[in-house]
Amino acid sequence: MKTNIALIGYMGTGKTIVGQALAEKLNMNLVEMDWLIEQEASMSIPEIFSKEGEIRFREREIAATKKIAGEKSCIIACGGGIILNKINIDRLKESSVIVYLTASPKTILKRVSGEAGQRPLLEVADQLKTIREMLKYRGPYYERAAEVTVHTSRLSVDAVTENIITRLKEYEGFNI
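The chain above was modelled as a monomer; its predicted structure follows.
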């Protein structure tokens, strides 16, 4: 029986804020994957990318996923690139229902535009183009991993949360 809910999706799709709302509503602990990686590294995500590079960050992500996958009754807000390593998804699926949050590129840009310096992969001239390219590349990975998908562009946090809870009540192998 799966007891965790793992939220996946590109940056700005609502994983952290929806994770907080789900954790509160379902009385579960929230594990913020990026925060855990920052704690383990004693550096922020931008610092890890700058000092160690993306490959080392992905290694840290694999280690954090291994640690988190063993937890029970948690909401896990995953980093946007967690799907790039199949081992992460395989580990999460052992104990978690994977919920894929999506949003349009324009919605994502609007949501992350005030976070200068916090999004290493968006330190580029044409952010919208980069978002579109990354979504095109990562889309099949997200879709393959997803057990439940919710498009968040036009929904409030409460609406997304209720949608997830409704869908999970119908999901076999997960008890809400």
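The domain at 4-169 is CATH 3.40.50.300 (Rossmann fold).
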